[in-house]
Amino acid sequence: MSKDAARDKIIYAAKCRFSHFGYGKTTMAEVAGDCEMSAGNLYRFFPGKLDIAEAIATEDYENHLNHLRKIAVLPGKNGPERLRELLFEELRRTYHKLEKDPRALEMAQVISRERPQFANWMLANERKIIVELMEESERRGEYVPPGDKQEIAEMIQSATMKFRYPQLWSKLTLPKLERELDGVLKLLIEGLCPLRMAAQHENAA
Amino acid sequence: MSKDAARDKIIYAAKCRFSHFGYGKTTMAEVAGDCEMSAGNLYRFFPGKLDIAEAIATEDYENHLNHLRKIAVLPGKNGPERLRELLFEELRRTYHKLEKDPRALEMAQVISRERPQFANWMLANERKIIVELMEESERRGEYVPPGDKQEIAEMIQSATMKFRYPQLWSKLTLPKLERELDGVLKLLIEGLCPLRMAAQHENAA
DNA sequence: AAATTGAACGCTTTGTTGATTATTCAGAGA
DNA sequence: TCTCTGAATAATCAACAAAGCGTTCAATTT
User: Fold this and answer.
1) Interface contact A190-B187, CB threshold 8 A
2) What pLDDT, in 10s, does the model give residues A122-180?
3) DSSP structural state of residue A205
4) Which of A122, B15, B54, B183 is 20 to 30 Å apart from B203, CA to CA?
């Protein structure tokens, strides 16, 4: 069996175990048994148990990222609308994922505790999408706030932090969270488009 | 001794103990001993140990609130500037308080875990100040965003959540946090004043 | 030589026990 | 009657032992 095939087999077995019994209640010996190999042999393919979890999370997250990338270039929508869709999709996905599946919550907690880098990596990926979204808006001649886009994206993420892993910080329900995110975005977006406002104001005058 | 005097005495003794040895390492018997009474008697004045901690936190926080109220009407500053001062003061105070004093961190953690209501109460108090700040700005003829001020204040708090108990959510240093808060506020404030921008734009044209 | 195993190691978790502590309350004292 | 005490109670915590698990590596198989 090729190295890649073995890795995939391990990831598949671990994914089954983790989602059935949880990360903590799954042993390396069990995963190895499912792959018809010894526990020790797993370490030829992964540095450790956490790295298997990380590989699973990465795979899952890449799918999500692709989904977000599509939203960021949704036809028939302008920049602010796309940003709104992006952040709402993010909120809904993580909410549902962590809400209905306690195993997913456990894995999220373990990974973000033991591998803080991972959360940074996710943030950086999404920031990149936001930057591209702004660049695309600029290309289409829409108003885009002046200044370093990277930095603006960072601030957007800071301001919407509360909605990224909602259930880690509050016990609010999804509808309440959506209302709040809506309000925050209204402030942010109008802030991001002062000239559009100005133009409307001029037209009215 | 009057009931109130006894309460004050208990609060004082507990404050000394808590800040010297921490909440967990202080026993009710010790606090009672400092007050020259029995442990059981403490329960005539407070429902429990946590309520003593809450009383101390409340007293301390009321001072802080008064300080914030002054900032919210700082002369020679307009609404956005006052809001900025308010939020920066909030960030600096909590950062320093929790940074240099592990006892304060312990008490903050205990109270916010066992008495989640308390954090809500603090948020509501600060929200009230923000609303008053906006009303004052309106009275002075400044631009104030349309809509329910209560709700706007809520959104401002959502967007600046990351800076409220900074060390519970990230390991960022104060300078980095200040830079981020500055960036977020730039977005928010410009969003809160589209007509001011519009006016500038018109003047330039 | 390369791949794989499984026993051995040390760390973390779990279970258990005993002691400490918050809280209660019957009764003593004012 | 009202205040207060201190012993009784129940919950929590700390310390320790045992078990389980992730990880390593010398030995074995391919």
Assistant:
1) no
2) 999 999 999 999 999 889 888 788 889 999 999 999 999 999 988 777 888 999 999 99
3) -
4) B183
